Amino acid sequence: MSAAKYKKNRAPLPKQKSGRAPAPDETARAEPAAEPADLPEVSSPEPATAAGSATPFWKVLLAALAIVLAGLAAYSNSFHDDFVLDDMPAIKENPTIQSGWAAPPPPATRPAEILEKFYQRLPAPWQPPNDGQTVTGRPLVNISFAVNYDWAKSHQKDGFAPEGYHLVSLAIHLLAGLALFGLVRRTLELPKLRAQFGAAALPVALMAALWWTVHPLQTESVTYLSQRAESMMSLFYLLAFYCFVRGTQSRPWLWMTLAALAGATAGLCKEITATLPVMILLYDWIFISRKFSDPLWRRWPAYAGLLLAMLPLAFLMHHAGSRGGSAGFWLDMKWYDYAVTQYSSIMTYLKLVVWPYPQVIYYGETDDFASAAYTLKDAAAMLTIMALAGGAMVLLWRKPKLGFLGVWFFAILAPSSSIMPISTEVAAEHRMYLPLAALAVFAALGLWQLLRRRALSAAFAVTAVLAVLTFTRNHDYRSGFDLWRDAVAKHPNIARAHENYGIMLYEHDRIRESIAEYLAAERIKPNYSDCDNNLGNSLGALGENEEAVKYYWRALPNLVRPRDRAIASYNLGNALLALRRYDDALAAYNYAGTVANYGPAFNNMGSIYSEQQKYDQAIACYLKALYFQPDYPQCETNLGNVYAKTKAWSQAEQHYLRAIQEDPNYADGHAQLGTLYLNLNKYAEGAREFTTAVQLVPDSPEAHYFLGLCLAKLGKFDDAAHEFETALKIKPNYEAARADLATVRAAGAAGK
Fold first, then answer.
1. Residue 583 burial (CB < 10 Å; 0-12/13-18/19+)?
2. Nearest 5 degrees, angle CA 383-CA 389-CA 393?
3. Res. 327 pLDDT band, cuts 50 70 90
4. What's the CA gap between 237 and 270, in Å, rounded?
């Protein structure tokens, strides 16, 4: 039946009584006839302002509680999981989250742009490292890590206790699940859908949100901490949608303003937010508007607000540039070659949605596929994905309400999974975090249509299975060692998997095995610069510093990110220092310090100058290290040592005190301060500091010996004798302790 004929035969609408005020908004008027291929027309719809009022609040609250409890159960074993892969540079090695909330020092070259100048005056957490790490160009994610760090430090921890980080990531995920639940429920209660799905709004929204929250594909965005960028962006993306829908129903100025604010906040988390205004406009046309012109004609202030909300994102994308050379059309891999890999990647994602095994932390980088030949499997994947994308467009035309789900899936995947190469990862499970919502809603609608009232029972069974699989997958994140061993077993032809497993072996003092993994990585990918740097570390640990220097030199020219070059040059300096090539070591450290403001390099330069008794140069280097890395107790202690050597006692004491304030468990800081007090004849203060040092490092013979000296000076000969005896038990050939033990015993006997 044609649309014209359908309109001709439909029943007339009831006449409006004279004198009745017209509806205040187009969305509150009777809806036009629905296309017969889509959903049936609601002949006398309720006003849109009534949407959501039919569901009792207690039922909504109970459903929300079910989502939270399911998420907590699925992720209950994730709180002690380790920092892995990008967590190291994004969190543990990220100076901007450890530098407090003052503005960092300005770079050597100041920008000409006003916005850049303003940005550089913001507190350090607002300025994440601009070297292509996960936090690059995503200040709100960086700020969340800074808050985690400060909270951990305030609770007498080292700032990197994983429990707090995992708690925040899980809270973000659960809030995103609740936002999805609210958005789906309110969408199904809109006038255009209420007749068909109004009664099903709560159960369908609950099923979709439950599956989305506990699906194993989400683990990478929740348990893998640095991918908090994905979950944070998605939370505010969904909230922007939710607020927009509420704004079409009541108090538009309030809700539309909140939608714009949520959109701006999402833009501070990840670049996929750029799709938000277009997706909301499409949603408005399909689910809300009566006429094609309504969104821009009747709600233009809302869209103006959404576009303005994208301006911070535009600035951040400009500021981040190519994300440290990791993304862009100018990479070695051509856009069409990258596109071919994405067909297979999307097929992998879809397969993991239905059958989430095997999941791995890493699927390879563009270099792993740049020279690969096209296969029949690639062609089949290309045809399948093109057919699915074409089907989504046909649905958008014929059945737009279902077609919107297909567009949601492909549009949100498009920035990372289409034609723009991303060199570091050709595929990543976290990219499915928000697109998975469309598939979850589609599955929930299908199950409801199939089983009706029995759908919830089946949905809870599926939820339980998914939650168990997520719980099991979280076990792989217990440590980087487990995660990369799993990756090598499942994808043995990925060079970076071998490299990172080698790093884990190195950290477990399995040095020879780590070298074997690095060499395996270089067989797969020759001239692998990151692997060369790590090979140098392992060879240096075995004392083979000449060989280590060769690998560091080979790595340096090919490293793109400034921080990576700084670390390789720093490692080169350490190897040269071990070979007593002091001038070469100083040059390597100086390059490492200046190329990325790397504090440890300046600290090591200071130590060389201190050994050479060039105290003015040593002090300058230590101060420069502290300038770039203020929270650095080892450097504070080294600086105190130089002042002590020059008999600048007050400055030495100041820096020792600062070191133990920054890290109360830093034993060397307490010991050096105790030595200072001993030299100044402040024996009680010295005994206090050495007592703390002994408690922190009970197997240090020197700490026991110097504590004994302080106690002897205080006339506590028995206590001093006990400390000297302890030092001798730890170090039997400690002649100074043996001599002083005899002295205090004689003094004790004479006193008696």
1. exposed
2. 135
3. low
4. 10
572, containing H or E segment: helix 562-578
pLDDT at 284 over 80: yes
Phi, psi of 327 (to 5 degrees): -145, 140
- 134: amino acid identity, one letter: T
Instruction: Judge if the upstream peptide bond of residue 56 is cis by omega within 30 degrees of 0.
Output: no
Query: What is the per-residue pLDDT for 463?
Result: 98
CA distance 392 to 80: 41
Q: What are phi and psi of 94, to 5 degrees?
A: -95, 105
What is the Cα–Cα distance from 129 to 109, expressed in whole angstroms? 16
How far apart, in Å, are the Cα atoms of 641 and each of 322, 405, 599, 672, 720? 43, 65, 18, 8, 26
Contact assessment for residue 207 and residue 444, using Cβ atoms and an 8 Å cutoff? yes
Rounded mean pLDDT of 434-439?
98
* SS percent in the chain: helix, strand, coil, step 5: 70, 0, 30
Residue 721 confidence class, pLDDT cut points 50, 70, 90? very high
The pLDDT assigned to 646 comes to: 93
Average pLDDT over residues 359-370: 80
Q: Can you say whether the dihedral through the CA atoms of 362, 368, 373, 374 is positive or negative?
A: positive
In the numeric block, which tokens belong to residue 622?
Answer: 């230590």
Q: Given this model, what pLDDT does residue 108 score?
A: 61
The Cβ-side half-sphere exposure at 313, using a 13 Å CA radius, reads 24
User: Would you say 329 and 421 are in contact if contact means Cβ atoms under 8 Å apart?
Assistant: yes
Which bin fits 480, alpha (ψ -120 to 50), beta or left (φ > 0)? alpha
658-675 as b/e, with b when 16 or more CB fall inside 10 Å?
A: bbbebbeebbbbbbbbbb
Percentage of the chain lying above the pLDDT 70 cut? 89
**What are the start-end ranges of the H helices in 579-716?**
582-596, 599-611, 615-628, 633-645, 649-662, 667-679, 683-696, 701-713
What number of CA atoms fall less than 13 Å from residue 739's CA on the CB side? Answer: 3
pTM for this predicted structure = 0.79
Q: Are 267 and 309 in contact (CB under 8 A)?
A: yes
Q: Comparing C-alpha atoms, which of 258, 272, 238, 237 is closest to residue 302?
A: 258
Please name the residues in contact with 48: beta carbons below 8 A apart, sequence gap of 6 or more. Answer: 25, 27, 28, 190, 191, 248, 249, 288
Per DSSP, what are the bridge partners of residue 327?
Answer: 422
Q: pLDDT tens for residues 557-600?
A: 988 888 889 999 999 999 999 999 999 999 999 999 999 999 99
Tokens of 395: 């649905």
Task: Give the C-alpha separation, 681 to 128, whole Å.
Answer: 47
> What's the pLDDT tens digit per position in 66-119?
999 999 999 999 998 889 888 988 999 898 998 888 887 766 666 767 878 788
Residue 243 CA to residue 179 CA, distance in Å, equals: 10
The residue among 238, 251, 431 whose CA lies nearest residue 346 is 431
User: Looking up tokens 């907590």, which residue turns up?
Assistant: 72
Ranking 28-42, 519-533, 734-748 by mean pLDDT, the lowest is 28-42
Q: According to the model, what pLDDT value does residue 518 have?
A: 96
Q: Nearest 5 degrees, angle CA 325-CA 331-CA 337?
A: 140
**CA 565 → CA 53, 93, 332, 432, 547, distances in Å?**
59, 14, 20, 32, 19
- Can you spell out the DSSP letters for 440-493? HHHHHHHHHHHHGGGHHHHHHHHHHHHHHHHHHHHGGGG-HHHHHHHHHHH-TT
Percentage of residues in the chain having pLDDT higher than 90: 71
Q: Is the pLDDT of residue 630 over 90?
A: no
**Do 595 and 589 touch, CB atoms closer than 8 A?**
no
